[in-house]
Amino acid sequence: MKKELIKKIIFVSLILSVVFWQVSWAQEAPLQVLIADEGNVVLDKNVHLPEEGMLSVTDTQGNSQDINAKSVLAVLYALDEIDDTFTISDLVYYPSFSAFYLKCIVLSGEEKCNYWLYKVNDDAPSVGMDSFILSGGEKVEIYFDSGFFGGGEEDPEPEVVEDPPEEEEGSTGGGSGSRKRRKTPEPAPEEEVAQPVAALVPAVTTTTPPEPPAAQKIAKAEPAIEKVAEIPVSEPAPIELSAIATESGNSPKIPIIFAGLLAFLVLIFLGRRFLKNN
């Protein structure tokens, strides 16, 4: 009786060890970290996911803050300390948001600023780098794209509305002679005034010249610029913080768990046959 009990205990312990090992392996799968500049991959490296805990990150002003060691920013910050391919040159911390903003990275001696974005498994998260928590096995791409916010595009030249061309008109009135004047879009009506003169001088009808046209302003057509997003100058756009892991959070890989359960059932079946034969 004791012999059978010992066999069962050993058998169950073996099964539990296999299951826990598979779950642990799924959670600690290496990360693929890529850094790209305008579509050109500068760094492609596999790194191990850090253990649970906090990592102290220092901003450009020398102030340190603790963030989750499994966040995207923590992985990039730790990689910067051991790899010379890139250097984080400007990292800003905003106390009002309790969040970091990755502003500048130096690549091949050239500093790239303001247009750093990131993807996880080809999806762009809606939270900052310091808030997205990794679980292992993800593909993390940190890339510089100056055209994402419409940067680098030249504004079109504004259209200029010219004044209407001058037109010549003949004179009206017998004794005033001919004269030239500019025709405005809506000229004022002309009035004829009869001036009384001496009896020996025939009446002469004169035409009052119209007032000079008012100076017209040149209308400049402002180019319609589609506003996609804004780059923060003094403070960045609010960053949504999330303390809960996303779908790629700490949940183990479902196919691996199924494989572990299948192995568990197979081992139970073999164990029962073994015990039955003995």
UniProtKB/TrEMBL annotation:
InterPro entries: Transcobalamin-like_C. Residues 152-170 have a biased composition (Acidic residues). The keyword Transmembrane applies. It holds the Pfam family DUF4430. Residues 110-145 form the Transcobalamin-like C-terminal domain. The chain crosses the membrane at residues 256-275. Residues 146-196 are annotated as: Disordered. Keywords: Membrane, Transmembrane, Transmembrane helix. This is Transcobalamin-like C-terminal domain-containing protein. It comes from Candidatus Nomurabacteria bacterium RIFCSPLOWO2_01_FULL_46_18.
